[in-house]
Fold this protein.
Amino acid sequence: MGRNCAPLAFISMDCRLNPATANSMHGQKMRPLLVLLLIATMLAGCFERGQTVAVDSPPPPDDDAICRANNVQPGSPAYIVCRKERDAMRAKSEARADRAQRNLGEYMLNNPTRP
């Protein structure tokens, strides 16, 4: 029972092992792997690449195609104004969505009993 129980003792902790007779190399090999596994799972939540995208959001419109639809050549002053207006509209929309999300979070913190 002593020799077959050593690998199971690490998982189930059922076996009564004598530390003097247990294989100490087994524990030394597993310890770095266990530490690495714990660190990897803790750091997995820290990684976020770019901005999160909602699944149901429509694809963003093609600003170049919209500005060219007005019969404006790329590089012309009217094209540049069109692109700046599109960028400003997008930034305003994102700021409005961020503000709404922040307001919802503050409401939920300040009113925990009411939905």
Observations:
- The chain has two domains: 2-44, 63-110.
